[in-house]
């Protein structure tokens, strides 16, 4: 059974979902979600869409219904606001310093080495810009947030180290790599 829209959902969000759900199944697939999110002056890569689907659906179904769509939508609005707040020079990209501050504001303190790796991997110019555009910023933050949360589940004392079995490690990391 598909989920319901939360009470008071913006009607334009409801019609956006209904337009995406062409067969009226109550669920939208990856391509439909990509199209629905892209209609707001922004395109997202299939990888970002899959990552959103992984993080915003429950383990059993992995399907986007009205409730999940609403969460994705509002969460993207929130990320957009964070991006704009930390893109201090309004370049349309966040550089290493801006990303460090954005991540810190979200409670993620990464080392200079990790920061450097994030900026070079999520820079769609392949490292030329040394900065990350909005869609890749989303992907970057979702990855850092998701992996940090998975790590914290194992590091209940917040000591900064955790132990994983091989199986546990693979099952934790692979969904982020192959989203
Ligand atoms: Ca900037």
UniProtKB/TrEMBL annotation:
Record-linked CDD domains: EFh_PEF_Group_I (cd16180)
Entries under InterPro entries matching the protein: CML48/49/50, EF-hand-dom_pair, EF_Hand_1_Ca_BS, EF_hand_dom
Keywords assigned: Calcium
Signal peptide start and end residues: none
SUPFAM superfamilies: EF-hand
Species name: Punica granatum
Superkingdom assignment: Eukaryota
Domain EF-hand as annotated: residue spans: 8-43, 74-109
Protein known as: EF-hand domain-containing protein
Transmembrane segments: none
Alphabetized GO MF terms: calcium ion binding
Pfam family name, one: EF-hand_7
Stored PROSITE patterns: EF_HAND_1 (PS00018), EF_HAND_2 (PS50222)
């Amino acid at each position: 059974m598909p989920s319901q829209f939360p009470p008071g959902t913006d009607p334009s969000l409801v019609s956006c979902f209904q337009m995406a759900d062409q067969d009226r199944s109550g669920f939208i697939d990856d391509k439909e979600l990509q199209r629905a999110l892209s209609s707001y002056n922004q395109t997202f890569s299939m990888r970002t869409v899959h990552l959103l689907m992984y993080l915003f659906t429950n383990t059993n179904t992995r399907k986007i219904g009205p409730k999940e769509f609403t969460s994705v939508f509002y969460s993207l609005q929130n990320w957009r606001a964070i991006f704009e707040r930390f893109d201090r020079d309004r370049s349309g990209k966040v550089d290493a310093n801006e990303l460090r501050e954005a991540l810190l504001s979200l409670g993620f303190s990464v080392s200079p080495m990790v920061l450097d790796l994030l900026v070079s991997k999520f820079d769609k110019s392949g490292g030329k810009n040394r900065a990350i555009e909005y869609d890749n910023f989303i992907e970057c933050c979702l990855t850092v947030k998701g992996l940090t949360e998975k790590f914290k589940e194992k590091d209940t004392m917040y000591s900064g180290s955790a132990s994983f079995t091989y199986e546990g490690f693979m099952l934790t990391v692979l969904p982020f790599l192959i989203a």
